Amino acid sequence: MNWTQLLSTKRFGMEDYHGVRGDDRSEFQRDYDRLIFSAPFRRLQNKTQVFPLPGSVFVHNRLTHSLEVACVGRSLGVNVAHQLKEKGETAPFLDEIGSVISAACLAHDMGNPPFGHSGEKAIATYFSEGKGQHLQQKMTAEEWKDITCFEGNANAFRLLTHQFKGRRHGGFVLTYSTLLSIVKYPYAAIHSDTKKQKFGFFTSEKADFEKIAAELGIVRHPNNPNRFVRHPLVFLVEAADDICYQIMDIEDAHKLRILTTDETKALFMNFFDDKRKQRFEETMTMVTDVNEQIAYLRSSVIGKLIEQCAAIFVAHEKEILSGTFDSPLVKQLPAQLDEAYRKCSSTAFSKIYRSQEVLDVELSGYKIILTLLEHLIDAVLTPEKAYSQQLLMRIPEQFETGADSTYEKVMAILDYISGMTDVYALDLYRKITGISIPTL
Prior knowledge:
Layout: H1 3-6, H2 27-36, H3 39-42, H4 62-86, H5 97-107, H6 116-128, H7 141-148, H8 152-161, H9 176-180, H10 206-216, E1 220-221, E2 224-228, H11 233-255, H12 261-269, H13 274-286, H14 290-315, H15 317-322, H16 335-353, H17 356-381, H18 386-392, H19 406-418, H20 422-433
Antiparallel strand pairs: 1-2
Helix pairs in contact: 2-5, 4-5, 4-11, 4-14, 5-11, 6-17, 11-14, 11-16, 12-14, 17-18, 17-19, 17-20
């Protein structure tokens, strides 16, 4: 793979109109702006990141997380582009790497359903072990794998590229480079790992992915011809996400008093040597506000991780371009930083992700999603029923509930549910179950 081919301004769905615009914005900056002003992006403000929403203390939701990831991603891209140019790389659009990554970071979570990972699991298990099991005989093996391993990453690619009814061809009509920079797992569900079961695109978007991959020169994986290698910028998008969710979750836990101030400071201090720690201590004698102290440490940690991840990417550029590099950048951190990052990860798992507040919203979200699936899947498969007709009238026309195949009908319902905010899903659940009745 080479940077000249990898950085393309060609837009999906507008290939026939590809050309140079007379505009101060680059094509990749246009991607960023298009995403920012989109309704699916706005809806991220009401989707759970980790902690329940809205809460008395404001913590991260999917929207604020995505904005912060975009900022970190842009810094990573600018840093990497500068180092690549110093090495002698002269490919067109090299200076735009930061813009590509920031746009991809905005989009990376747009396919996630309500209630975070519990929403993904609820959708998958409804088909694999719930009331949707009987549909297996009506689908191909590839289609069945798509829904029994439902994946927010693959759904993001579908959301950005799929032509919904009444909408324009090409979906968001983003550049090829931005689109492939979000695909962390560049293979179909049928070729995913048995345990991890992550994948990058549904069967319905396989041809679209392969078309874009061919244009950008993305090669097949040397050890598995059923898979493609990642677009190199995926590593930087992934690193931005890894940095933000890990570090920002620690800060949120401090605000919610799940972690003490001393615990939080110790976790962040672990990233630095004794000399830097001494400077932090001196600064904190002047800045006495505890939240400001934590914010200062957090920003310093993020800055350190950006610097290191950019250096790791450039050091492994040759392997990344050849498709032989498979590790997340944060897994290649120097010993001290690696130990500090792992300590944050283990603390987050034991004290944050398993906290009662988080588990409660996951349990509730699981039940809500399963109930919506049960009613809406039945409605789309038996539209002749009176109750089905009432339910289907609630679904916007852009979702093709009248599609020909069972797979397409199911995907239409998954499009509808995955696009919901937590609040909308809860409201519809209450109405369907009769818990909430509109005021007459």
